[in-house]
Amino acid sequence: MNWLTTLLEDVPDDPFYGPRKPLWLPREMSHAPALPPPAPGHRPQSRTALLINPFYAKSPHGSFGKHVLTPTLALTSLAGATPENWQVRYWDENLLQGVPPCEPVPEVVGITVHLTFAKRAYELAQWYRDQGSTVVLGGLHTLSCPDEVRPHADALAIGDGVQLWPEILRDIELGRLKPRYEATYERPYALDPPPRRDVLNRKNYLTTTSLIATRGCHNRCGFCYLSTAGLRMPYRVREPEDIRRQFEMDGQPYAVFIDNNLGSRPDYLRELSRALRPLNKIWSAAVTLDITDDPALIREMALSGCTGVFIGFESLTDQNLADARKRTPRVEDYARRVRLFHDHGIQVNGSFVVGFDGDRKDTFTTLVQWIESNHMECSTFHILTPYPGTPLFRQMEAEGRLLHRDWEKYDTAHVVFRPKQMTPEELLLGYDWLYRRLFSHASIWRRKPPELSALPAYFAGCYLYKRSNRLWRFLIKHQMVHAVWHPLVEMTRLRHVAFRRKLDAQGAQKFPAACGTPIPASV
Q1: What mean pLDDT is predicted for residues 344-359?
Q2: Whole-prediction pTM value?
């Protein structure tokens, strides 16, 4: 372990990310609130539905702020598909407001089930069933492991929940609920009703304008949940005018696109950018690096208000990318493409996976040096995680490399398999070192942009977003997220509008980055 000791000595001992101090993680960020005994004698209120996003444990390495950046669209989309004769409520346990409501007892409870919070979803399901509610479970884990989920629900929704939800509620009204409902993602995406954002408490989020313009991705990486067996999600798009209208109607200055890959069809992204441009608002999204094949498209994005992109670089080793079936430009061209975003005032949050079979102990230092030399504003790290149903899971299972099936630890922050070229302990400690190093004062200073005008937004992103978990916990607990962050977001919007005027006036010439969003793009 001498190599690790050397790495950790590289990091200064400071209050938040020093190697000799444990990272701060309060209990309410790591443990779900205790459920009280079921209240006896209450009858469910007819035609009332409650949609729940269960609690999941937070990592001390990540920003608590990313959990309240914008709400999930899975459940607000179900709310949009709820028939008018039903009352619907939304509850997110991650907002630290306690246990979900049960007065009155809802007739139907819909709970999304994902891998890392499946256990909590089952606890909630049993709690509501004990009080007389009908419980419907859906989500990706329901699709990948239906036999595991089935005993915990009155009905399963497998596949496109927006199609299934009205049918399930109708069958409940008629007293003919089936144990299993299935739908594909084949129908045109434009047929889905828009999400209902009126069920949200605006105070809890930096912005309630979470948008999905596209569904699916042209990549099928072996480790990605989109490669789950049984999940066929053809690429679908909504009309750009529909997205523009949703953005405008929500009245927020900033939107987050939570598409898997907004740039899978460059022609569509260009059309969408042109539709958003007149709004004079700002937005961020996840894209793949190959959209930089067309520099004119990056300019269109900047002119429409794009201030941040989340990009899955995944690895700096071409062989790792090939093994993962990731279609991406050559690693040697990454730096030039990052500069193209920077030249158009777009910050880059780079996502990297560690633990590939080609990764060695020197992977961590190589990664840090590359990120710092390319002035990456933000980076997100993930330990390679074999999700059930994916090719990677089947490979690890066949090779006998899975350490356990404790789904709560399949969160990309724990090692759940045996790496090839290091021990599980070495991989975990290397991952820990990456976050400590990248968000140490020294590294933040090394990565600062060269333009003075870009420094305020950059330091806001690094310190307020990534190094202020105590502040975030306070704001989330007291429902002050929107109130505190809205002025800073509006200032960023005004700066970017001025930047776009200059960029537009100079045509397609290279222009130094003048501003960026204070919150790195996140999904």
Answers
A1: 94
A2: 0.88
